[in-house]
Design goal:
Number of domains: 2
Shape: globular
CATH architecture of the largest domain: 3-Layer(aba) Sandwich
Structural class: alpha/beta
CATH topology of the largest domain: Malonyl-Coenzyme A Acyl Carrier Protein, domain 2
Number of strands: 9
Helix content: 40-55%
Strand order of the largest sheet: 7-2-1-8-9
CATH class of the largest domain: Alpha Beta
Strand content: 15-25%
Length: 316
């Protein structure tokens, strides 16, 4: 029997105009954008649809913007009667999963991720840290890559995205040494990412502590969906796990590869990426292939892909 997972993207997937066609054509989606504007007391929708790219890239704006666009697209799917057996989100995307599961109210999640964005940016001065994607590196060589950077700054693994892609993060000088070493050890590419902070490293531990204070103010609900956590790639079984896991997530590796493997091993064979971009769908296909398992991966990022996905999911 087919099992389905809804997966949600994180920071870096944003673009001006995301979700605009949902706002214009689907009432339930429009209400999400309007709630975001009211909750944050700002013209978030106008920033998303008509703003400047540099403003959208500011972490405190990016995070609520992606959350809003993702939930708007989710509501369109739910309006068609579609749901899932499991859900997960990459980094910021985990908040979309938790909103979907009713563990966190959308309005509360908006406020928290805006503060999360501020805390993450303020933890490390601009220009001190960064991130890089390593493509095609043999995992056995990863310890040597990190060791090469040891005397030049903190460098740690930020994301295990797929069999072919690992993201490292840390202080700029150490990061460049690590990238050079990765290429020497057979990586196909080492690409510095256009981010403003070394996300998912111990350098962001102060941001996690500040985030804890915000999360502890929330009234959390019991999870109505099976949510897979970034921090360990396993199902969250109780709302009591939420605060510590979301705090740890800020300064620890995102186990995306492991999360997808877990869901595939639970029988999930259809993944729907909901939100801007489609990088997660690509990761899912490569992870499934590495496991020798055939999985379907589709994305909902605009009205056309939404309609295509509806057609695929409702075929008897």
């Amino acid at each position: 029997m087919t099992k389905r997972a809804f997966i949600f993207p994180g920071q870096g997937s944003q673009h001006i105009g995301m979700g605009n066609d949902f706002f214009n054509k689907i009432k339930e989606s429009k209400l999400v954008f309007e709630e975001a504007d009211d909750t944050l007391n700002m013209g978030l929708s106008n920033l998303i649809f008509n703003g400047e790219d540099e403003d959208l890239k500011k972490t405190e704006n990016t995070q609520p913007a992606i959350l809003t666009a993702s939930i708007a697209m989710l509501k369109a799917l739910e309006n068609e009667g579609l749901t899932c057996d499991y859900t997960a989100g990459l980094s910021l995307g985990e908040y979309s999963s938790l909103v979907m599961s009713k563990a966190i109210r959308f309005s509360d999640a908006l406020k928290v991720v805006r503060e999360r964005g501020k805390f993450m940016q303020e933890a490390v001065p601009f220009g001190i840290g960064g991130m890089a994607a390593l493509l095609g590196l043999n995992r056995d060589n990863l310890p040597q890559v990190l060791l090469a950077a040891k005397d030049y700054g903190i460098v740690e693994v930020a994301n295990y995205n797929s069999p072919e892609q690992i993201v490292i993060s840390g202080e700029v000088q150490g990061l460049r040494i690590a990238c050079k070493k990765a290429l020497e050890l057979g990586a196909k590419k080492a690409v510095e990412l256009p981010v403003s902070a070394p996300f998912h490293t111990s350098l962001l531990s102060p941001a996690g502590l500040r985030l804890k204070g915000e999360l502890e103010k929330l009234t959390l609900g019991d999870l109505k969906s099976r949510v897979i956590s970034n921090i360990d790639g396993k199902e969250i079984t109780s709302k009591d796990e939420l605060v510590p896991k979301l705090v740890d997530q800020v300064s620890n590796s995102v186990l995306w590869h492991q999360s997808i493997e877990y869901m595939i091993n639970q029988g999930v064979d259809t993944f729907v990426e909901i939100g801007p971009g489609k990088s997660l769908s690509g990761f899912v296909k490569r992870i499934g292939k590495s496991m020798g398992v055939e999985v379907k991966a589709m994305n909902v990022s605009d009205i056309q892909s939404f309609e295509d996905t509806i057609d695929k999911l409702t075929v008897v």
